[in-house]
Amino acid sequence: MTSSPILAPPPEPEPLPPPRPPLSRQTWRECAYLVGSWPLSLLAFVYIMVWLYVGVLLSVTVVGLPVLALGLLGCRRLGAWERARARRRLRVTVDEPSPLPGRGGAGFFGWLWARLRDPVGWRSALFFVLRLPLTTLTCWLTVICLLTFLWPALPWLARWMTNVDRALVVGLLSPSDEMERRIAELETDRASVTDTASADLRRIERDLHDGAQARLVALAMDLGLAKEKLTEDPETAARMVDEAHGEVKLALQELRDLARGIHPAILTDRGLGPALSSVASRCTVPVRVTAELPARPAPAIEGIAYYTVSELLQNVSKHSGARRAAVEAWRAGDRLMLQITDDGHGGADATAGSGLAGLAERLTAVDGVLVVTSPAGGPTTITAELPWRDRTHRPTREKGAPR
């Protein structure tokens, strides 16, 4: 069975490395890290002291605050470089913090304020200030062990000293909290939502241009010809008007289909349960729909849930080879749960650049989760989880996960 979770919780900081033989390759990496840290920390310390002295000294003028802001950008760069060095030498993985926002429409003072209150830059500065005395001690201890009879104790000593460095790197150079991680995710999600919206607008424009608009243009031309023949050949004109009437019906149907693709009226009027039953009725295989929703979620969540089920049922029709399918929707706490199953041949993979990957990006943009379980030979089970975001506070009955 293959399970493809699309969104996972953030990884916990890595534990300390497991035991290893003395004088291994990693021991020499750690020794190189300890010896090289002192001169680098010294340069970073001098930079920070000069920056703070000049920035504070000039803070009585208009120049001081920009100097502090630019210095914090430098501290942020030093922190990024030290994280990369720790990954390479100490084999410790630390996530990159969220990038600073651009100037946007906030102007110079918005840019300045965002950089002055940058916690990543300030923590990086604190890291190098605290680290200088430590690296002074560890560097010279390592050199003494290498050059004297103390070298047999070097593997254990290097391991202990680099563990202190690992703790400092993780504690001061990693993202400070869940908020920073969420900001980084939202930056990515915003780009995904923008791309999706642009693609939807292009699709609507193409459907209008190639469908209803072209049909209405042809209809106008036919009616113009019928008007010219109305006095000369009434029978031909009547036939042309009759044909135009049929074209009007087709154009109206195309416009209805297009409007339903933008936002179906049944979803607005009757809610998610009836809308899911409606979309299931258009599937080429029989679909059983079970919706236990004691209240309605936010309209935006309803729309995303509707299009998620619609796209998944299209995949069932086109690719699964299934004989039957099922759709279940229920509320679990503050989450809207959707589950679509079919008895097809399986093999759906959300990591292979398929439509499932794009669907997962849409869900992550609203704190959603998509999990695909589709072993070869089937069956396929796809679970989507969305925030409820109810506009009311009525209590609801929870439903357990279906079997």
Report on this structure:
With 403 residues, the protein is α+β, with helices and mostly antiparallel strands. It is built from 11 helices and 6 strands. The protein has helices spanning 25-57, 64-89, 107-116, 119-147, 154-173, 178-229, 234-262, 265-270, 272-281, 299-320, 355-364; strands at 3-5, 287-292, 325-332, 335-342, 369-373, 380-387. The chain has a 6-stranded mixed β-sheet. Helix 1 packs across helix 4, helix 2 packs across helix 4 (119-147) and helix 6 packs antiparallel against helix 7 (234-262). The radius of gyration is 32 Å and the shape is elongated. It starts with a strand and ends in a 16-residue tail after the last strand. Residues 1-11 and 391-403 have low confidence and may be disordered.
* Overall geometry: elongated
- State the major sheet: 6 strands, mixed
> How much helicity do the residues have?
55-70%
Order of helices and strands: EHHHHHHHHHEHEEHEE
> Would you identify the regions where 5 or more consecutive residues have pLDDT less than 50?
1-11, 391-403
Structural class: alpha+beta
**Widest sheet, order of strands:** 1-5-6-4-3-2
What is the CA-based Rg, rounded?
32 Å
Helical segment tally?
11
Report the portion of residues in β strands. 5-15%
How many β-strand runs?
6
